[in-house]
Amino acid sequence: MNGVIIQYFHWYYKGKLWNEFAENAEYLKSLGISAAWLPPATKCNLGLEGRGYDIYDLYDLGEFDQKGGIATRYGTKEEYVNAIEKAHHHGIAVYADIVLNHRMGADEDEKIKVHQVDEEDRNKIISEPFEVTAHTKFTFPGRQGKYSDFIWDYQCFSGIDIVYRDGGEQTGIFKIHNEYGTEWTDDVSHQLGNYDYLMGADVEYRNPHVVQEMKNWIKWYLETTKADGLRLDALKHLSSDFLKEWITYIKTELNPDCYILGEFWKDDVKKITAFSDKMNDLISCFDAPLHYNFFKASEEGKAYDLSRILEGSLLEEKPVFSVSFVENHDTQKLQALESTVRDWFKPIAYAIILLSEDAYPCIFYPDLFGAEYTDLVGGKEINVTMPKIEALPKLLIARQMFAIGEQIRYFDHPDCIAWVRKGTDEKFGCVTIISNGDEGFKEIDLGQANANSKFKDFLGHRTEEITTDEAGKAVFSVNGCSVSVWIKLQP
Description:
Layout: E1 5-7, H1 17-30, E2 35-38, E3 43-44, E4 55-57, H2 77-89, E5 93-98, E6 102-103, E7 108-118, E8 121-125, E9 130-137, E10 157-165, E11 168-176, E12 201-203, H3 208-225, E13 229-232, H4 240-254, E14 259-262, H5 269-278, E15 284-286, H6 288-300, H7 314-317, E16 322-325, H8 346-355, E17 361-364, H9 365-369, E18 371-377, E19 380-386, H10 392-402, E20 407-410, E21 416-421, E22 430-435, E23 440-445, E24 454-457, E25 466-467, E26 473-478, E27 482-488
Parallel strand pairs: 1-2, 1-17, 2-5, 5-13, 13-14, 14-15, 15-16, 16-17
Antiparallel strand pairs: 3-4, 6-12, 7-8, 7-9, 7-11, 10-11, 10-12, 18-19, 20-21, 21-22, 22-27, 23-26, 24-25, 24-27
């Protein structure tokens, strides 16, 4: 089956997401969506304002009165579990977004010892060790020990960014001195010297009690929610040794079919494949390099060489473990990694990830449903409209009906490329042709089996019919800065 993931949220989404997703499950299935990546369901420090990435209590899925209320931004635990049940009823798997790196919003302060490090080189110590007060103790009084009585204290954390001493607040990056060491763990990304620390109270995975608690928690989570897979956040900052142990536990003890998808955000494919290799291929990764190719192509227009659109991508290097995407909540406008693919290029980009062999594509909520939002940037209110991509539903249907069989590429021109999906003995697949410049044409030989056959553009961008000659050849066309998907008409 030609599986497709939908990222069913964006950063600025407001509303009852769990209920809306449940209502739309049948429609998503009709488009061929086979899996949905939902945002973090756990209670976060900012309550209804948090997006789920500022993790407070992993066991609170919208059940306890904590951080300003019972529900999370997206709804209650009951609504979340019901949404997953509804998805399963329609044959859609659910991937839960899991944040392992940090905690925020501690319940109590502790006296701890720290030293400060250089933010640009975390291996460089810029202070002597000193005593401080820090928010590092999590007791979860609103939950009162239900599901787990584990207390998180400073021995469970390796670093923090806010400390208090001499009656004042001090910000920076501070390495916590605990019984597991005064150095960062080394099996993380070496960006900025050592990228163990990202934000909040950074979890210490050298603590065996923490590792056991995380195993206990994921067992509870999967049994409670019946989620089919996990999307793991911010893996550059996590111990790969812990990850291997934890994922192996999930695969061997809990669910061998649990799909694990990681965000290891690098624009260099070699670094992603090195991470994948280190993880013994236990995990698939988002293809950030391909996203950046799409972004660059959309910015440069005709000056971009389309024949090189897949170069340096995970789809090219390690397709079985790649997940291709055009946009996500980090790259959308006004976000930290903003690299928004321009609207004119999005149908082209989606055609590439939806109709190519080997790709496991992930579509983005606003591209299917549209989105409008507002944010403050430098004190100024910015309004953003993300129009839905009109061709996307048809491209999704084309993936299910025609993106089948062996692929033959015609990546032989900088402004116009094509590829053929040969289909099966019973049914021809399709010819996809794209242009980032002027109207384009491509002569393609489809073989004797497709001689004297008529073809039409499934997307309706071209209105003419094309007929192959007695040898099965024809010239297929595409509008400027557009995509066409040519399918065979039944005689």
